[in-house]
């Protein structure tokens, strides 16, 4: 089978020729079945970006990606799919087409990490040794933590979630079938990817209810486990005005714990009064599930107590194992988890891991840059960009706290191209450089 990224079926030992290390501190595992200079676990946004960058430096045969799935999804498009603007196939590409041609694709799950022996074991029982490891395994969706939810998905097409490929296709039909009553949108009590997405779909739905003339007979409700509508004051103020103007009811500190599918009832715990439950009737329920790192990672020796790969938040290097780095949603960097954050992290990781490989001092620091394009209607978007201190870090010399059609165009038309053609190829480190250029001599909206 001819593949862009060589898919390995037979065990073999790769001889690490041509690698110019000035001081090789880390030696490849002696008892693994395969050995690589660099192993990347996960072929999502971060894994593809890092593999692309290092294949260029290390050459064919020296980089492997462990990734079980045949298809790579551009997840930021899921909001637009749920809103009826794009289709699932618009967001999908074969995995072999996005992994770099010169890496070895080990198509299996990583199930065990041995950071001392420098090897990863796969679900098919292979031991893959490495000099350097990058963990990019993203987040796992824990729908089963909500009692009755998996059954409700099967029972009722009005119970949906943009977060999963199996359910995102049901969101737009459910919005269109909605005839009035309660439309409830939830936000869970765990860290999630794209913290704006639970409310973006609510704004798109509310707009469609107005268009479909069902809005006057309905209540649109955002039940969030958080205590604020958004974690950055500037954007929270804009969103607060929008929910008030559009008569959307926001209930804070409400965490979905059970769905009674047959009765169309959702049970929320009041986090201010633990143990106190509130039952809401629904006619449409959009669930953002609780999330965690994947089980195989969460139970490994390389994570912190919360299950995230324990990295230095500035260098992205593991706190205990200097030959391990981590990128994206599965690492412990305390920022909002997005593909935009992955882009900024990829440049920092590239420089620091290269330095470690060459025995040099790490010089790049991640400032927590992340971005959330908050779609507020078909054609309007607030482009939130901020750092570790929740301070705006805006790219464009305009007030990004305002709803803008230009930012919607950026999100819907420019970002997919940037993602497929630049980020996944290892050529997009986020807009930091452009921000500095654009803002040169124009003052600053936060830090430069
Ligand atoms: P992922 O891209 O999720 O990749 C993780 C990979 O690891 C997957 O391919 C998975 O198969 C693999 N994996 C898992 N377990 C194993 C294992 N055991 N062994 C090997 N491989 C494994 N971001 C934005 O910047 N802007 C947006 O507008 C935006 N909107 C979003 C809307 C929605 C509805 C969603 C769901 C996400 C959105 N995001 C957005 C977030 C963005 O998609 C993620 O933050 C980003 O994809 C994280 O990249 P990652 O590499 O960390 O994880
Ligand atoms: C970004 O870099 C990125 O990754 C490619 C996203 O994910 C799709 C984003 O949504 C955003 C907003 C950025 C930031 C880029 C610019 C130009 C502001």
Q: How many separate domains?
A: 3
Return the CATH topology of the largest domain. FAD/NAD(P)-binding domain
Range of strand content:
15-25%
- Provide the list of bound ligands, each named once: flavin-adenine dinucleotide, ubiquinone-1
* Helix and strand composition category: alpha/beta
CA-CA gap between termini: 49 Å
How much helix is in the residues? 25-40%
Structural account:
- By secondary structure, the chain is α/β, with parallel strands linked by helices.
- It is built from 11 helices and 22 strands.
- Strand 12, helix 6 and strand 13 form a beta-alpha-beta unit.
- Helix 1 packs parallel to helix 9.
- The N and C termini lie far apart (49 Å).
- The N terminus and C terminus are likely disordered.
- The structure holds flavin-adenine dinucleotide (FAD) and ubiquinone-1.
SSE topology sketch:
Elements: E1 6-7, E2 34-41, H1 45-58, E3 63-66, E4 71-73, H2 78-82, E5 92-94, H3 95-98, E6 104-106, E7 110-114, E8 119-122, E9 127-135, E10 140-141, H4 149-155, E11 159-160, H5 165-177, E12 181-187, H6 197-211, E13 218-224, H7 233-245, E14 249-251, E15 254-260, E16 265-270, E17 277-281, E18 284-286, E19 291-292, H8 295-298, E20 324-326, H9 339-357, E21 370-377, E22 380-386, H10 405-423, H11 432-439
This protein binds flavin-adenine dinucleotide and ubiquinone-1 (UQ1).
Short description:
By secondary structure, the protein is α/β, with parallel strands linked by helices. Strands 1, 2, 3, 6, 7, 8, 9 and 20 form an 8-stranded mixed β-sheet that branches. Strands 11-18-12-13-14 form a 5-stranded parallel β-sheet. Strands 15-16-17 form a 3-stranded antiparallel β-sheet, with no helix packed on it.
């Amino acid at each position: 089978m001819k593949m862009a990224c060589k898919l390995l079926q037979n065990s073999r030992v790769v001889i690490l020729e041509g690698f110019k290390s000035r001081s090789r501190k880390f030696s490849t595992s002696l008892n693994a079945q395969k050995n690589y200079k660099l192993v990347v676990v996960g072929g999502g946004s971060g894994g593809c970006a890092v593999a692309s960058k290092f294949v260029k430096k290390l050459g064919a045969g020296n980089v492997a990606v462990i990734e079980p799935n045949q298809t790579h999804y551009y997840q930021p498009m899921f909001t637009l799919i749920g809103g009826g603007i794009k289709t699932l196939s618009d967001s999908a590409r074969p995995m072999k087409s996005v992994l770099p041609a010169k890496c070895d694709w080990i198509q299996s799950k990583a199930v065990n990490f041995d950071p001392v022996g420098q090897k990863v074991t796969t679900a098919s029982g292979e031991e893959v040794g490495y000099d350097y490891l990058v963990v990019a395994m993203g987040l796992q969706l824990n729908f089963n933590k909500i009692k009755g939810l998996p059954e409700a998905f099967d029972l009722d097409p009005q119970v949906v979630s943009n977060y999963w490929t199996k359910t995102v296709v049901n969101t737009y039909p459910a919005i269109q079938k909605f005839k009035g009553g309660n439309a409830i949108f939830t936000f869970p009590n765990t860290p999630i990817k794209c913290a704006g997405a639970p409310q973006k779909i609510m704004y798109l739905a509310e707009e469609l209810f107005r268009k479909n003339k069902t809005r006057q007979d309905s209540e649109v409700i955002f039940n969030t486990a958080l205590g604020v509508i958004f974690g950055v004051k500037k954007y929270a103020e804009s969103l607060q005005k929008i929910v008030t103007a559009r008569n959307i009811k926001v209930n804070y500190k409400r965490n979905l714990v059970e769905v009674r599918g047959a009765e169309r009832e959702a049970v929320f715990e009041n986090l201010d009064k633990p143990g106190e439950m509130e039952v809401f009737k629904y006619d449409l329920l959009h669930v953002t599930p609780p999330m965690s790192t994947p089980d195989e990672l969460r139970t490994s020796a390389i994570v912190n107590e919360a299950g995230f790969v324990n990295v230095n938040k500035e260098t992205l290097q593991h706190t205990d194992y200097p030959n391990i780095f981590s990128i994206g949603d599965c690492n412990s960097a305390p920022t909002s988890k997005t593909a935009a954050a992955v882009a900024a992290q990829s440049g920092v990781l590239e420089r620091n891991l290269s330095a470690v490989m060459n025995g040099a001092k790490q010089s790049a620091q991640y400032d927590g840059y992340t971005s959330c394009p908050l779609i507020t209607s078909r054609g309007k978007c607030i482009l939130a960009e901020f750092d570790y201190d929740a301070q705006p870090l805006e790219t464009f010399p305009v007030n990004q706290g305002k709803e803008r059609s230009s930012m919607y165009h950026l999100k819907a038309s420019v970002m997919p191209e940037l993602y497929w053609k630049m980020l996944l190829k290892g050529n997009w480190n986020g807009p930091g450089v452009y921000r500095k250029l654009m803002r040169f001599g124009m003052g600053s909206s936060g830090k430069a």
